[in-house]
C-alpha cells in the first residue's frame, strides 16, 4: 500500500505511481455481455485495469405504485462483499454500498433511461419491475465508473421472459429488449491536492479529499451529480470536473459497442 502523503507528493509534481496521465483510464477496459444468460435476463462483466464488476438484470411482474399505476420501476443494488476486497465485510450494506447503489440508480432514473410506461402490463395491476444487481469481483479502485458501465451494459443485454397464463416463464425468452430510450453513463473525477484524477487506484482514492460523479446521457446532457469526500468544491472546481467527466464519459461509451 502506498501512503496518502506520498500520493499527494507525486501528484503535486505531475506524476502518478503507475505512470499514467491524470486523465487516463487503466488498461485494458472491456465489456462482455451475456455472462449469466441462464440466471439473469441481462448480464455483463466490466473490467477496468484490475477492477472487475459483474451486473445482472432480473425482471419480475409486480404491483405498480399507487401514484404511478401505469408505470413499471427499477431498483439498483450494489453488493460490496469480502470477495472483492478485505475492507468489506459480510452483513447488511454499509454506507459505501448504499451510496454507490443510489448514485448508479439516480443516473438511470433521472434521465428517464427506461420508458417506464412501456413496462406496464395491466394498468393498476401488473407492471414489469427491473432489478439491477451489481457485484464487484475485484475492487481495485474506481468502482463508481465500473459499476455504472456494467449496469448500462446489463440493461442493454436484457430480454423479456415470456408470460404464460399470467405467470413469468423464465425458461423462455422473447426477442424483446427493455424499452431503453436514453443511455446514461457516469464518470467520477477525484481531487487529490489541487489536481483532478480519472480512474484512481485504491491508494489514490485513499489520498483523495473530494470526488464528483457526473452522469451524462448519450447526447451529452448532464442528468445527475453526486459529490463525495470530506472537503468542499468551488464552482471553478466543479466546472473543470464536469468538463473532464464529459470528455472521459464519451471515451467510456465507446467500450459499450
Notes on the structure:
- With 257 residues, the protein is α+β, with helices and mostly antiparallel strands.
- It has a single domain (4-256), classed as GHMP Kinase, N-terminal domain (Ribosomal Protein S5, domain 2, 2-Layer Sandwich).
- 25% of the residues lie in helices and 35% in strands.
- The strands form three sheets. Strands 1, 2, 3, 4, 5 and 6 form a six-stranded mixed β-sheet that branches. The protein has a four-stranded antiparallel β-sheet with strand order 10-9-11-12. A two-stranded antiparallel ribbon has the order 7-8.
- Strand 9 and strand 10 (195-198) form a beta hairpin.
- Helix 2 (95-110) packs across helix 3 (143-157).
- It is elongated.
- The two termini are 35 Å apart.
CATH superfamily: GHMP Kinase, N-terminal domain
Q: Percent range for helical residues?
A: 25-40%
CATH architecture: 2-Layer Sandwich
Low-pLDDT segments, ≥5 res: none
Count of distinct structural domains:
1
Order of helices and strands: HEEEEHEEHEEEEHEEH
Helix-and-strand structural type: alpha+beta
- Please report which band the strand proportion falls in: under 5%, 5-15%, 15-25%, 25-35%, 35-45% or over 45%: 35-45%
CATH class: Alpha Beta
Tell me about the biggest sheet? Answer: 6 strands, mixed
Q: How many whole angstroms does the radius of gyration measure?
A: 19 Å
What's the total count of β strands? 12
The CATH topology is given as Ribosomal Protein S5, domain 2
Amino acid at each position: 500500500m502506498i501512503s496518502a502523503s506520498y500520493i499527494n507528493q507525486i501528484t503535486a509534481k505531475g506524476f502518478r505511481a503507475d505512470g499514467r496521465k491524470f486523465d487516463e483510464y487503466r488498461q485494458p477496459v472491456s465489456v462482455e455481455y451475456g455472462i449469466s444468460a441462464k440466471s439473469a435476463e441481462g448480464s455483463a462483466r466490466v473490467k477496468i485495469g484490475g477492477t472487475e464488476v459483474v451486473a445482472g438484470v432480473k425482471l419480475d411482474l409486480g404491483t405498480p405504485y399507487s401514484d404511478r399505476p401505469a408505470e413499471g420501476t427499477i431498483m439498483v443494488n450494489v453488493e460490496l462483499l469480502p470477495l472483492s476486497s478485505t475492507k468489506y465485510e459480510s452483513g447488511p450494506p454499509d454506507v459505501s454500498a448504499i451510496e454507490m447503489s443510489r448514485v448508479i440508480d439516480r443516473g438511470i432514473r433521472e434521465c428517464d433511461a427506461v420508458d417506464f410506461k412501456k413496462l406496464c402490463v395491466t394498468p393498476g395491476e401488473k407492471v414489469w419491475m427491473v432489478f439491477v444487481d451489481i457485484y464487484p469481483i475485484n475492487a481495485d479502485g474506481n468502482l463508481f465508473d465500473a459499476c455504472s458501465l456494467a449496469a448500462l451494459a446489463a440493461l442493454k443485454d436484457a430480454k423479456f421472459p415470456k408470460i404464460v397464463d399470467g405467470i413469468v416463464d423464465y425458461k423462455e425468452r422473447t426477442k424483446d429488449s427493455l424499452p431503453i430510450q436514453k443511455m446514461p453513463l457516469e464518470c467520477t473525477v477525484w481531487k487529490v491536492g489541487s489536481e483532478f484524477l480519472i480512474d484512481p487506484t485504491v491508494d489514490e482514492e485513499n489520498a483523495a479529499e473530494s470526488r464528483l460523479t457526473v452522469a451524462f446521457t448519450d447526447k451529452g446532457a448532464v442528468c445527475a451529480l453526486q459529490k463525495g469526500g470530506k472537503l468542499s468544491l468551488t464552482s471553478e472546481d466543479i466546472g473543470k470536473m464536469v468538463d473532464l467527466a464529459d470528455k472521459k464519459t464519451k471515451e467510456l461509451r465507446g467500450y459499450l459497442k
